[in-house]
């Protein structure tokens, strides 16, 4: 049996695979025995070793240099040195205790072992120095100012460019932030624009000389802002005074005496097809006389319109210089609604009024007897001032039908009222009447 086993073992060496595996194992054992007993040191490189920066005094912090990496050259027993990694070596700067103020410093670096693997030595490091920037880390909030440059063809213009965000938060080295005086949202269009659009304006940080301040250590809460650019058109719009209390006897004939300054203004609109005359605050025509005939009134702008020239008022005058006036007594009274005026009568026989109009027509009225004047005094009981047997009621004036066209350019100045006797107390009151 022994001979058979020896014979089988000997035959294994005729197997190529067995011989190859056996040779590798013998070589490894031989190398291990030689390496472990060898006294010759070998050199190795250890890369990407981070630098350990000690804390600085006060509120100073490191900025530049803290991300630097070091390569160390070590020498030692091959079994130990070949297994040394970046976590087994600590690199530290020297002289940090003398850093007491902001600035840039060059610090010497040194390496030391920090693990149980100690049978090796550090023979060199690269780089051997590191530059660091030291400063206080501060934060502040600043307002953003628009600096948008766009060109619009006539008659378009930029109406508004509101910033989507008004402030930005900055943080970083104090010496950098102290240089920043203004924060601008900057954008320059590369071609003219004629419609509303939205752009992204880049934030630029500038010093007192308008030079841009940049730093890799400057951090901001945003780098750009959205800016809608609203574009409108300039359109000329007529000024149309709002004249109220125009006598029915005059109608729209008052417009021929009206002088408006300015007659038109330039407005800014989104859609020019919606433009109509610009109105004014009301002008009470009953207050117009030959002596007081000029009124300064504010313009009333439509919502969404721009008053492009900032024209806020208009002067509206009534040129009555070529007209005549006469004071007459009228005695032809009528009640507006006879159904509610049963038993009522005007307390006075007549009312005195001043009539203004073209000279020829006023002269014709002068020659008429009071009983023949073609003007009716219309008493409105629905607007009586109080209840009782004697009440005050406003009056209006109307021409007799035959004289409507003949005297339609004449009117009666001011507002008038009369007292009315209410003899029949059973009169049914008018609903919704204004006292």
Mean pLDDT: 85
Number of helical stretches of at least 4 residues:
5
State the name of the first-level CATH class of the largest domain: Mainly Beta
Q: Biggest β-sheet: count, sense, barrel?
A: 16 strands, mixed
What is the number of strand segments? 29
Q: How does the helix and strand content classify structurally?
A: mainly beta
Rough outline: rod-shaped
First and last CA, distance: 144 Å
**What's the CATH architecture of the largest domain?**
Beta Complex
Residue share in helix = 10-25%
Give the low-confidence spans: 425-435
Rg (C-alpha, Å) = 51 Å
Q: Remind me, CATH topology of the largest domain?
A: RNA Polymerase Alpha Subunit, Chain A, domain 2
**Domain module count:** 5
Q: Which range does the strand content fall in?
A: 35-45%
């Amino acid at each position: 049996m022994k001979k058979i086993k020896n014979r089988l073992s000997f035959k294994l060496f005729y197997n190529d695979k067995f011989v190859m595996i056996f040779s590798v194992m013998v070589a490894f054992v031989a190398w291990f025995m030689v390496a472990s007993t060898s006294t010759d040191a070998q050199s190795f490189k250890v890369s990407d070793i981070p630098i350990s920066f000690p804390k600085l005094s006060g509120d100073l912090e490191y900025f530049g240099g803290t991300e630097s990496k070091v390569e160390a050259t070590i020498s030692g027993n091959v079994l130990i040195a070949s297994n040394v990694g970046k976590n087994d070596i600590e690199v530290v700067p020297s002289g940090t205790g003398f850093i007491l103020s902001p600035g840039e410093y060059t610090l010497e670096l040194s390496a030391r072992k920090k693990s149980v693997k100690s049978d090796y030595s550090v023979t060199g490091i690269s780089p051997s120095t590191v530059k660091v920037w030291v400063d206080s880390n501060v934060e502040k909030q600043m307002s953003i100012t628009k600096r948008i440059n766009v060109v619009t063809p006539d008659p378009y213009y930029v109406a508004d460019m509101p910033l989507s965000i008004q402030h930005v938060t900055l943080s970083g080295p104090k010496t950098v932030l102290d240089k920043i005086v203004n924060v601008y949202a900057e954008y320059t269009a590369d071609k003219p624009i004629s419609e509303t659009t939205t752009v992204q304006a880049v934030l630029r940080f500038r010093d007192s000389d308008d030079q841009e301040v940049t730093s890799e250590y400057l951090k901001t809460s945003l780098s750009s802002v959205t800016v809608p650019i609203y574009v409108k058109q300039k359109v000329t719009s007529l000024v149309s005074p709002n004249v109220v209390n125009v006598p029915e006897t005059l109608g729209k004939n008052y417009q021929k005496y009206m002088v408006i300054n300015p007659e038109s203004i330039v407005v800014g609109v989104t859609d020019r097809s919606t433009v109509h005359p610009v109105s004014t605050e009301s002008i009470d025509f009953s207050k117009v006389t030959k002596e007081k005939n000029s009124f300064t009134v504010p313009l009333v702008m439509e919502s969404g319109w721009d008053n492009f020239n900032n024209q806020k008022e208009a002067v509206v005058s009534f040129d009555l210089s070529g007209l005549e006036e006469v004071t007459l007594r009228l005695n032809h009274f009528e009640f507006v609604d006879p159904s509610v005026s049963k038993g009522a009568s005007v307390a006075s026989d007549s009312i005195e009024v001043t009539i203004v109009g073209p000279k020829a027509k006023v002269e014709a009225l002068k020659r008429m007897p009071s009983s023949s004047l073609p003007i009716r005094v219309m008493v409105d009981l629905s607007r009586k001032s109080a209840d009782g047997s004697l009440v005050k009621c406003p009056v209006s004036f109307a021409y007799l039908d035959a004289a409507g066209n003949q005297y339609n350019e004449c009117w009666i100045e001011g507002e008038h009222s009369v007292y009315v006797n209410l003899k029949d107390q059973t009169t049914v009151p008018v609903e919704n009447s204004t006292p």
